[in-house]
Amino acid sequence: MLYLIHVPWKWVKQRPHFLAEYLSNYYDIDVYFKKQYQKRGLVKNQPPGDLRIHELFKLPFERFSSIILKVNFYIVRFQLKKIINQFDIVWVTEPGLYHLVSGILPNNVKLIYDCMDDALESPKVKLNKKLAHQLFYLEKELLDKSDIIFSSSDYLKAKLLERYRVNDKKIFVVNNAVFIDQNENFKKDNLSEDIINQFQKAKFKITYIGAISEWFDFELILESLNKFKEITYLLFGPDFIEIPKHKRIIHFGSIEHEYIYQIMENSDLLIMPFKLNELILSVNPVKLYEYIYSGKPCAAVEYGESLKFKDYVYLYKNKKEYFKILEKLVNQKLSPKKSGEECKFFAENNTWEKRAKFMAKIIDKN
C-alpha cells in the first residue's frame, strides 16, 4: 500500500498516523509525505518497526513563490511516478495529494480516500476563491475515481453526498478513535519541570490539548477568566493564531502524544471550546475519546458529533451553560459523568486498532 499523507510524520499524531500504524498489521505499507522545512510544531514520533516512512523531496520557500510551487509539483510527482507501479493500493488523505497521482495511477490499483476533514471549509481555502474552485473539482474527481471512501463523521459523509452526488454505497463512516498504550498512559514522572511547575501553581487547572486556530473560542475563555479568578487554562498544541496575553493562559506548544495522559491526569477539567462553523460541524473529535479515557471531567460545545459523547462529557450550548460547569468546578462539585471503569470500557471499544481492523475488512471485500 502506498499511503500518502498531507502532514509530516513528525507532526502531532493524528488520524493518518494511527491508522497507518495499525493498518500495517494487515498490509505492507510505505508512508510518503512531502518534506517539511519548517520545524515548528514537529515532535518525535517513532514509527513501529514494520512501517516504512519516506520523505518526498521538494524545494523550500514554496509559500512565497508560485514558480517554486509549480516546480515542486513536478518534483514530487516525478518521485511518485518512479515507485507507484510497485503498489496495488493507493491511500490518500487530502484532495491535493490526489492531484499528484492523477494520471499516473496504474489501471489495476485500488484507490482509497480517507476524508478526515471538510477540505473546502478550511480557513486558507475559504479565503482563496481560485484555490477553492480547484479543490472542488479535484475532490469531485477523487471521489469519482475512488474505489472506497472513508469519512470520519456522519455529517462529513452527508456533506460529500450533497456536494458531489457521489455513490453513497462506496462511502463508509469510520469515526476517529483513541490510542491506548498500557505502558505509558498514567506515568507521572516524565513531564518537563516547566509543565509540572505550572500545574502546581494553578488552583483549578483547565486543560486543552490540540491545534489552536480560528475556531478556538478565546472570547469565551477570556470572559470566563474575568468571572472565575481561581481558574487557569493550560493549552497544549500548535498555534495558528495569536493567543491572547493573559497570566492565566499558559501555552506550551506541541507535545509528544505519549505525554497527553499524564497531562490530563494532572488536570481538573478537560475542554473543547470551539466556535461552531461548517468545518467544526464535520469533526468527530479525537480529543473527546482521549478525554473520556482519562476518566477526568470534560466539557465540549454541543453539536451533532459531540452529542455522541453526551453520556460522558458535559456539553454546553452557550456561555451561560459553560459558566455553570465552571461554577461546579470552583465549588469542587464537578465529578466525571461516568466511573473510571465505564470510561475505560468506552475507550477500549473505540480504539484506532479496532478502526483499522474494520477498515481492513471493507478494503478486502471491495
Written overview of the protein:
- This protein has 366 residues and is an alpha/beta fold.
- It folds into two domains: 2-177 and 351-365, 3-Layer(aba) Sandwich (Rossmann fold), CATH 3.40.50.2000; 193-348, Glycogen Phosphorylase B (Rossmann fold, 3-Layer(aba) Sandwich), CATH 3.40.50.2000.
- It contains 14 helices and 13 strands.
- It has helices spanning 15-23, 66-83, 95-101, 123-126, 129-145, 154-164, 193-201, 218-227, 260-265, 278-281, 286-294, 319-330, 340-348, 352-365; strands at 2-4, 30-34, 52-56, 89-92, 110-115, 148-151, 171-173, 204-209, 231-236, 249-251, 269-272, 298-301, 314-316.
- The chain has a seven-stranded parallel beta sheet, sandwiched between helices. It has a six-stranded parallel beta sheet with strand order 10-9-8-11-12-13, with helices on both faces.
- Helix 1 (15-23) crosses helix 14 (352-365).
- The longest helix is centred in the first third of the chain and has 18 residues, at 66-83.
